């Protein structure tokens, strides 16, 4: 019974993260094909609506893990849908500009993803 009390909230959090990524991908890809600009501030606020409950279910230690997974999965899948390589870095978002200025950050996000996931599992 202890296992059931811990796995269901985590699974609920994961489902919320996946749903948020899917909705975010749908809206951004739709705008891309309509040749309209993405409002990144509005998008960030809408993401929080899905991710805050996910953190509630998964615990505060999940914040870095969710952030890194979200960044890697969203950017990679979005890039594939718009015909770019997985690791392509855009030009419009603030994070894209920072990553273009400091290319080594590409590796930091994957290292952060691995370390935050390991720490979340262990703690």
Question: What topology emerges from the helices and strands here?
Answer:
Elements: H1 2-33, H2 40-58, H3 62-81, H4 94-101, H5 105-122
Task: Please give a quick description of this structure.
The protein is an all-alpha fold and 123 residues long. It has helices spanning 2-33, 40-58, 62-81, 94-101, 105-122.
Work out the radius of gyration: 16 Å
**Number of helical regions:** 5
Q: Please bin the fraction of helical residues.
A: over 70%
Shape descriptor reads globular
**DSSP strand tally:** 0
Q: Span from first to last CA?
A: 20 Å
Order of helices and strands: HHHHH
- Low-pLDDT ranges: none
Largest sheet: none
Structural class: mainly alpha
The residue-averaged pLDDT reads: 91
Describe the structure.
It is built from five helices and no strands. The protein is mostly helical. The mean pLDDT is 91. Helix 1 packs parallel to helix 3. The radius of gyration is 16 Å and the shape is globular. Helices cover 79% and strands 0% of the residues.
Which characteristics define this entry?
123 residues; mainly alpha; globular
